[in-house]
Each structure stands twice: as C-alpha cells, then as structure tokens.
Specification:
The chain is of the alpha/beta class and 216 residues long. The chain is built from 7 helices and 7 strands; from the N terminus they run ααβαβαββαβαββα. Strand 5, helix 6 and strand 6 form a beta-alpha-beta unit.
Length: 216
C-alpha cells in the first residue's frame, strides 16, 4: 500500500516537472507572439507568401514616389505591401538642402515657375507596368517638382495612374488636376490624400485600394 502511494507521488511529480519545463520553453523560445497589427498585416501582405489583395484586373503595378522628409515614403511602402507590385523612389540629380526652410522657399519658386528638376534614374521597364501608383508630398498646393519631372518625362499613354499624396494640413490642393494635365493620355483615378505621418491607418488605405480596383 505504501509503495503504491510512493509510485503515485513520483508520477505526479513527473507530470508537474514536464508541465513546468513546457511553460518555461514557450517563454524562452524567443518566438514573439504575433501582435494584432501583424496578424492584420499578414492578411494583405504580398511579400510574406500570405493572402494578397486581389488586383481585379490582374495588371502589373508599380508604386513610384518622391519624398523629402519620409512621410510619402512611409505611405508608399504601406501601399506596396498591400498590392502585388514593385516600388521606385524618384530622386532629383541635385538633392534638396537638408535645411527645411530653404527647401520651402526653393519649392515655392520651383512650383511657381513650373521648374522640373532632372532626375537621377528612370524606371527600368516602365512599359511593362499597366498601373502606376504615383505618390507625392504636397508642395505649395500641388505635386513636388520631381514628381512633375517624372510625369512629364515618362511614356504614360494608356496606363492607369493612381495618385496618392501626403500634406501638412492644407490638403491636396490642385495636385490631382495637375497630374491629369501632365498625363493627359492616362486614366487618372481617385487620389488618396492623407496628412503626413510615419504610419497610416491600413483600414483607410485598404478602403481606397478597393475603390480604385485593388479590393478583395
Ligand atoms: C516645399 C514645401 C512645400 C509645402 N507645401 C505644403 C502645402 O502647400 N500644403 C500642405 O498642406 N503642406 C505643405 N508642405 C508639407 C508637406 O506636404 C508634408 O509635410 C508632407 O507630408 C511631406 O512629405 P514627405 O515627408 O514625403 O516629403 C510643404 C512642405 C515643403 C517642404
């Protein structure tokens, strides 16, 4: 009878020991639990092998953008994660000054005179993309001059352009009209207009994507 109790006690101890090791292992394995945000992102990620958003027309998309302080770049990257496309950053040959006020003044002169700064690189194989997302910060109520250069130097006839912009509180100004003027032979869809930030509401981006034909 006593031996039976001892065996039973040993079995109980062994069970407790295994359970404890199991819990410790989970805590120290270094595999973080996915946050709600990353679970959400996985649903729309095109690069992680997860479910991608449906590009209804199955057209090859490119996200092109210019960004001076990073806000439009952050938006471009979020858009790229949600569509099955490539990304290209527009860069002027001569970078703008690192002094913000200098650029605000220079930008005003460039916008007013319609100056189009030469660009460092062209998109390889632009002809292979049917849909081009074009992103710009708003400079003096319109697109930034490097984006004007991109639009006027690129062969965009017959392509679909989907504009997006970030601004400092004064909205999109006449950026959409100006994009249409610079790409008269393209179909220009609704512009996504967001206040500049380093992170944007994915919900808002998805609602717009759905409106322009990249919905599920
Ligand atoms: C030259 C210049 C002109 C600007 N003009 C405007 C404007 O007309 N309206 C506005 O709301 N914000 C304006 N801004 C603020 C930017 O549009 C805003 O900060 C934007 O998110 C910056 O994007 P980025 O970080 O991609 O450069 C201007 C900024 C600069 C540098």
């Amino acid at each position: 009878m006593r031996i039976k109790y001892i065996v039973l006690a040993c079995v109980m101890l062994a069970i407790i020991a295994f359970a404890t090791i199991g819990i410790m292992h989970n805590k120290t394995s270094g595999v973080p639990e996915p946050s709600k945000e990353s679970q959400q992102a996985a649903v729309v990620s095109s690069k992680g092998g997860e479910k991608t958003l449906n590009n209804n027309q199955n057209k090859k998309a490119l996200v092109v953008y210019y960004s001076y302080t990073g806000n439009t770049r952050a938006l471009a990257e979020q858009i790229r994660q949600s569509v099955d496309g490539d990304i290209f950053e527009i860069q002027p040959v001569t970078p703008y000054s690192t002094d913000y006020d200098t650029v605000v003044n220079q930008g005003k002169k460039e916008v007013e005179s319609g100056y189009k700064p030469p660009l460092k690189k062209k998109v390889d194989n632009l002809s292979s993309y049917e849909v081009i997302f074009v992103g710009t910060p708003i400079w003096w109520y319109t697109i930034a001059p490097p984006v004007a250069t991109f639009l006027s130097e690129s062969e965009l006839a017959g392509k679909t352009i989907i504009p997006f912009c970030t601004h400092g509180g004064y909205g999109a100004g006449h950026s959409l009209e100006d994009i249409k003027k610079l790409a008269p032979k393209s179909q220009v869809l609704d512009e996504l207009v967001l206040s500049g930030s380093n992170k944007y509401e994915q919900k808002e981006i998805l609602a717009w994507l759905s409106k322009v034909g990249f919905g599920e």
